[in-house]
Amino acid sequence: MTANKPVPQRILITGVSGLLGINLALEAVKQGREVVGLANSRTLQNTPFAVRACDLTDLSVIHPLLDELRPNAVVHCAALANLEVCESQPDLAQRLNTETPGRLAAETARRHIPFVHISTDAVFNGASCNYLETDPVSPLSIYARTKAEAEKAVLEAHPDALVARVNFYGWSLSGQRSLAEWFFNNLSGKRQVKGFTDVFFCPMLVNDLAGILLRLLDLHAGGIYHVVGSECLSKYAFGVAVARAFDLDENLITPVTAETGGLVARRSPNMCLNTEKLARTLGGPPPGLASGMERFTRLYREGYPETLRAFNQPGS
Ligand SMILES: NC(=O)c1ccc[n+]([C@@H]2O[C@H](COP(=O)([O-])OP(=O)(O)OC[C@H]3O[C@@H](n4cnc5c(N)ncnc54)[C@H](OP(=O)(O)O)[C@@H]3O)[C@@H](O)[C@H]2O)c1
After folding, report:
1. Ligand 1 atom 4: the closest Cα is on which residue?
2. Quick check: CB of 37 below 6 Å from ligand 1?
3. In this structure, what are the phi and psi dihedrals at residue 275, rounded to the nearest 5 degrees?
4. How many Å lie between the centroid of ligand 1 and the Cα of residue 251?
5. 209 CB under 6 A from ligand 1?
6. Is the Cβ atom of 167 under 6 angstroms away from ligand 1?
7. What are the structural domains, with CATH classification, of the chain?
8. How far is the CA of 185 from the centre of ligand 1 (A)?
9. Per-residue confidence of the chain (316 residues) as pLDDT tens digits?
10. DSSP secondary structure letter of residue 246
């Protein structure tokens, strides 16, 4: 970490139509930064930042794009994040989840600009817990393997890059992307759902994650960081927290143990990550569940979900 370098102000965000990308772009704009976002299949409208369409599986577009846009930092949020699609299209997963970040890392290193790569808690198989950044990865699915390989490719090409292993929830463009939205939508519609009591994770509100990623960028933090919430809980407990935050009926959530139910991709039962390195860098622990849920409900009351949905061009 070197604090005397300039703070990146013109940021290129890939995957800007995704759950993390859109929230990160809005947070960066709120902080007075200039953002250029890259989307792929979706079309955004009336955003307070520039958006370009770009298929990043075509690696040849990356060099001319960076030459043209001249960002002074790149945050790579685009990915094939659907585990089942990764199983059925392993070549696409390998290209987008491993080769694309590797090329972006090489191109940003050549230009001496910071690169933030978004990785996942799923690089671990869950046989243990409270994983440290230095623990060996043990991916179970094609998604997890391609993300784990990306971490290596990124740090080989750009040793100062920040690799953030994340898990997050929040409001999305579609209103249906995150686990919290799934619980909220079903419980609001008074529909019975299942919550896994034996799958553990450390969810962080995406808006909190956005702020922390920008802070880490400003601090020029590099290497692998676990950027997740400070509490480890089951998916069932998370559903109950969503129900309580919105005064919805938590009895609609049936506690069950995880079963694959026709799913092909193997999932880790324990994705709890140690966040002490992050806490040391930030000077305090990352936000916990209560503060995340408080902000999640406040954003709802302020009409943030509708604001997001208005950016999503119908039919895109
Ligand atoms: N959600 C989580 O809790 C979670 C957990 C762990 C790690 N992560 C990681 O966090 C990052 C962001 O995830 P997310 O949930 O925000 O993802 P998401 O909502 O699924 O969004 C994926 C983004 O990638 C873009 N994309 C897909 N194919 C592309 C292509 N060929 N070329 C360029 N862009 C393409 C999509 O663009 P279009 O929609 O326009 O096609 C979209 O903007 C990913 O690296 C993911 O692996 C997420």
Report:
1. 167
2. no
3. -115, 20
4. 32
5. no
6. yes
7. 10-175+203-230+273-286 (3.40.50.720)
8. 21
9. 555 566 668 999 999 999 999 999 999 999 999 999 999 999 999 999 999 999 999 999 999 999 999 999 999 999 999 999 999 999 999 999 999 999 999 999 999 999 999 999 999 999 998 999 999 999 999 999 999 999 999 999 999 999 999 999 999 999 999 999 999 999 999 999 999 999 999 999 999 999 999 999 999 999 999 999 999 999 999 999 999 999 999 999 999 988 756 667 788 888 999 999 999 999 999 999 999 999 999 999 999 999 999 999 877 6
10. T
Identify the helix (H) or strand (E) that includes residue 162.
strand 162-166
Question: Does ligand 1 lie within 6 Å of residue 79's CB atom?
Answer: yes
Question: 267: which 2 tokens?
Answer: 């999932």
The H or E element that residue 238 is part of is helix 235-245
Return the closest-CA partner of residue 296 out of 239, 262, 256, 245.
Answer: 245
Q: Which of 14, 16, 19 to mutate to test the pocket of ligand 1 (most atoms within 8 A of CB)?
A: 19
Please tell me the distance between residue 124's alpha carbon and the centre of ligand 1 in angstroms. 19
Centre of ligand 1 from the C-alpha of residue 39, in Å: 10
Calculate how far, in angstroms, residue 43's C-alpha sits from the geometric centre of ligand 1: 15
Q: How far apart are CA 98 and CA 78, in angstroms?
A: 11
Give the closest residue (by CA) to ligand 1 atom 8.
Answer: 120
Q: Cα–Cα distance between 110 and 229 in angstroms, integer?
A: 33
E strand or H helix that includes residue 200 = strand 200-201
Closest CA to 215 of 113, 75, 103, 48: 75
